[in-house]
Amino acid sequence: MKTLLLRRLAVLLPTLLLVSMMVFGLQKLLPGDPALALAGEERNPEVIEFLRQKYRFNEPIPVQYGIWLKALVHGDFGTSVRTRLPIGTMLVEKLPVTIELAVLSMLVALLVGLPIGIIAALGRGTPLDYGASLFGLAGLSIPHFWLGIMLILLFSVNLGWLPAGGFVPPTESVGRNLISMLMPALVLGTGTAAIMMRHVRGAMIEAMKQDYVRTARAKGVREHTIVLRHALPNALIPVVTLGTLQFGELLAGAVLTEQVFSIPGFGKMVVDGVFSRDYAVVQAVVLCTAAVFLLMSLVADVAYVLLNPRLRS
Amino acid sequence: MSTIEAAPVPAQMRAAGRSEIRRLLREPSALIGGAIILFFVILAVFAAWIAPYDPNAPDWIAIRAAPNAAHWFGTDDLGRDVLSRVIFGTQASLAAGLVSVTVAVLIGLPFGLVAGYFGGVTDMVISRVADALLACPFLVLAIALAAFLGPSLQNAMIAIGISAIPVFVRVARAETLVVCTEDYIAAARAQGLGHVAILTGQVLPNVLAPTIVQATLTMAIAVLAEASLAFLGLGQLPPAPSWGAMLDVARQFLGEAPWMALFPGLAIIALVIGFNLIGDGLNSALNPRH
């Protein structure tokens, strides 16, 4: 296990370094003077000069990258030109909101995707299976933001049951926090539920073909025991990996969902950054999302080995 | 030598190609998906003839009119015909899907081929760069690239295309690794064929099928991504119609004019379903293992 972790870390670090180079390279896509562009709407010559000095735009590009990376390693992501706050502080503030949304969405995905996947696999070829396939196709094809708009139209505008947007921190009221997160989690969770359902269905069909299922049947074990005790735990191993990787995707999917429901998380931060040409914020969010994604793929690999007794030795 | 020449790969591919097309025609999902895409292609190409109104012409006496006989999908906040805007919006969405995926295939496929064929340091460098690109979630990377490049449909297509490159590097590399273990590659090498000849003549034809499947499925994602970028104001610039941008405006009039949000959304879903169905059908027809 230690070797696996070390080997994965040895791949993860250079990948993260490459990601940082690409994120740094984004700056170079900006037309004209980068200091002027990084200053956003700010036209104060002092600010522009400060940025030019800070990032040493007169130096060769590798030197500029080195300076940028050194600051990053020390936790200095720069300062937002819009809020004038250190971006590191903003990240620490926004990330928990998005993580809460991602966790709740994953819960929705599991509660919806798992049972539908199992039912579809057991009733392969029946109308139930076709219904599940339709759900899978719809989940993959409906844009999050449109689903969000439609839910707002139904539950907020027409029925008046749920708030159309806004966020209540859990420290203020856990109940109201959950109510404010209900629609966003449903919206974000549906796509993941569809992916989850497709994988669970495939894995369950495979598991039900295995010898141990036939043996259990021959021994007269009841069908639901076979499904729940024998086939499902085996079918869930790849699903755990998928779920972990999907968690990283949920952080990305949160961008539009947070925008539609005005949730002040990571996604809203990047969109606000885009609108106000706050490029350092955009860079920081891309970098952090990639880091979380890489970390999740490491966790997925480790979980896969831990859950699979055949690989553990 | 003669046995090698008796079984050249392109001939096998031609035979396989015919049977695969027959299999494809028996896949209901591919047929339904194909019909949907054909419908949208016709809409996009003949938009000027099909659309009942000029998509950008405001009608100040029919602002936010509900769907009626004159305006089947209603009108928007400026009195423009929603049906005409949905029809013209097809052009941006289809172009985004086609152009961005073509960019991604044209760059990703050669790199994947080279990485899988040569292995060693070449493979390591290409794979690490692809991994780094894959580590940035697709939409976040596309948003960031579009933000830095500046808002326009062209830049959105470039941003989506670049974000999709690593997927094709992965697919092409994986298939090349499998193909390179085949006897006919060893035979081609023994014949003294050069790397370029082997890559283009022997490896590429075998890597094309999975690449086409992946390209079709990626088009679905690209259409969604373009709509997302346009929704955020990073795609087609107004007043040119685009489904994502129409939804962004519609959000402000949800209570008064829900049809403004309903129809562009349904159009996105239909087009994405079309690409997903074709992708699934192609996958079944070209990859019998699935």
TrEMBL record, chain A:
Bilayer topology term: Multi-pass membrane protein
Keywords of this entry: Cell membrane, Membrane, Transmembrane, Transmembrane helix, Transport
Subcellular location: Cell membrane
Domain ABC transmembrane type-1 span(s) in chain numbering: 95-300
GO cellular component, one term: plasma membrane
Keyword Manganese tagged: no
Domain of life: Bacteria
Transmembrane regions listed in the UniProt entry: 101-122, 134-157, 177-197, 281-307
Signal peptide range in chain numbering: none
PANTHER family: DIPEPTIDE TRANSPORT SYSTEM PERMEASE PROTEIN DPPB-RELATED (PTHR43163)
Name of the protein in its database record: ABC transporter permease
Organism, as annotated: Bradyrhizobium zhengyangense
